[in-house]
Specification:
Pathway: Porphyrin-containing compound metabolism; protoporphyrin-IX biosynthesis; coproporphyrinogen-III from 5-aminolevulinate: step 4/4. By secondary structure, the protein is α/β, with parallel strands linked by helices. The protein is built from 16 helices and nine strands. It binds coproporphyrinogen III.
Length: 342
């Protein structure tokens, strides 16, 4: 029998939606913290195939999720292109910044990325061997705009101000950077698929700050290019796109990009998404991650509300964004039990 996630991605409406969770391998789990402590820092964990596969499997063992997502990070790709990357404890990622055409041109050619990313493909191969038969393996990359925001600012930011500033001040450099990331992303995801990823997801976490024509040019177009190139190389490959906080931009996003499923964040209601986005195909989402911290009857009610809103069409249950480190593993169990037992 075909895996539940693949059935939903093919457009089937299932009585109980399949479930997985963004950032399901993470610091809210004691077993993750133990493996992470053993590996050293976060990047050492990402580049250690045995340990990265181990933390990917932990939430599958604990909860029996329908999908496992490769344990890695969206910033490994710019690192493989030559940007320096490190993580400041308690603060998040830092990168050497690229804001000039000379900086873009100094990046490595896309063929060179596999040298750095080989351990990631090895993690995928281990997972393809070790996952339960019913579990779908999802590979991923950041969407070009989101990756560019980190490369341009050298860190995360609330408003992506540095990237917007470069986009206005030096459109040629900005567009060249988007182009380099777009083409490298195709090769990175294609290599994940060759290693055994069954589905890929594009994370555009900062799509919500692109408005009007910018949304078309830098969220829709790069996603459409990546998805059409991947599907040409891997016919039938299902793709999930996550243009987070796109609002009205979610409408028609699947059609405009060729994505098989659009992941919805929790800034829109499930009823709105069911009415406006789900007619275009499978949707994923969109329980607020805060319920994983607070739990209780509110969590049960909110889980049922999401299931109920999307029950008329293809749906993969998920959170609207990643689970946070302060979440309780028991609340995750309650969500899964509520979904599967009704
Ligand atoms: O979803 C998963 O479980 C798969 C693994 C995964 C990670 N990051 C692991 C991670 C995925 C899919 C990502 C994507 C990612 N990384 C995004 C897009 C999705 C989103 O959350 O919006 C972004 C913007 C990043 C960049 C990044 N990585 C930031 C900003 C941070 C620091 C914030 C934080 O949570 O600490 C990271 C670190 C990171 N990536 C962690 C994990 C498990 C925490 C690292 C740790 O163990 O200390």
């Amino acid at each position: 029998m075909t895996k539940l996630i693949l059935r939903a991605l093919a457009g089937e409406t299932l009585a109980t939606p399949p479930i997985w969770m963004m950032r399901q391998a993470g610091r809210y789990l004691p077993e993750y913290r133990a493996t992470r402590a053993h590996a050293g820092d976060f990047l050492s964990l990402c580049y250690n195939p045995e340990l990265a596969a181990e933390v990917t499997l932990q939430p599958i063992r604990r909860y029996g999720f329908d999908a496992a997502i490769l344990f890695a990070d969206i910033l490994l790709l710019p690192q493989a292109l030559g940007a320096e990357l490190w993580f400041e404890t308690g603060e998040g990622p830092r990168l050497s910044t690229i804001t000039t055409m000379a900086g873009v041109q100094a990046l490595k050619p896309k063929d060179a990325i596999h040298e750095t990313l080989a351990p990631i493909y090895e993690t995928v191969r281990i997972l393809a061997r070790e996952l339960p038969r019913e579990t779908t393996l999802i590979g991923f990359a950041g969407a070009p705009w989101t990756v560019a925001t980190y490369v341009i600012a050298g860190r995360g930011s609330k408003d992506q101000g540095a990237a917007h500033a470069l986009k206005s001040a030096d459109r040629a450099t900005f567009s060249a950077l988007i182009e380099v990331i777009t083409e490298a992303t195709i090769d990175y995801l294609s290599a994940q698929v060759q290693a055994g990823a069954e589905v890929v997801k594009l994370f555009d976490s900062w799509a919500g700050s692109l408005k009007g024509q910018d949304f078309q040019d830098f969220a829709v177009k790069p996603a459409a290019r990546i998805i059409s190139a991947l599907k040409a190389k891997h016919p039938g490959l299902p793709v999930i796109a996550f243009p987070r906080e796109a609002g009205a931009g979610y409408i028609g996003f699947a059609q405009a990009t060729g994505a098989d499923c659009v992941a919805i964040d929790n800034s829109v209601s499930p009823e709105w998404a069911a009415e406006h986005v789900q007619p275009g195909g499978c949707v994923q989402g969109n329980l607020s991650p805060t319920h994983m911290v607070t739990g209780g009857q509110d969590l049960v009610d909110a889980t049922r509300r999401v299931v109920d809103a999307f029950k008329g069409g293809p749906h993969i249950f998920n959170l609207g964004h990643g689970i946070t480190p302060d979440a309780s593993p028991d609340n995750v169990a309650l969500m899964v039990e509520t979904l599967r037992r009704g």
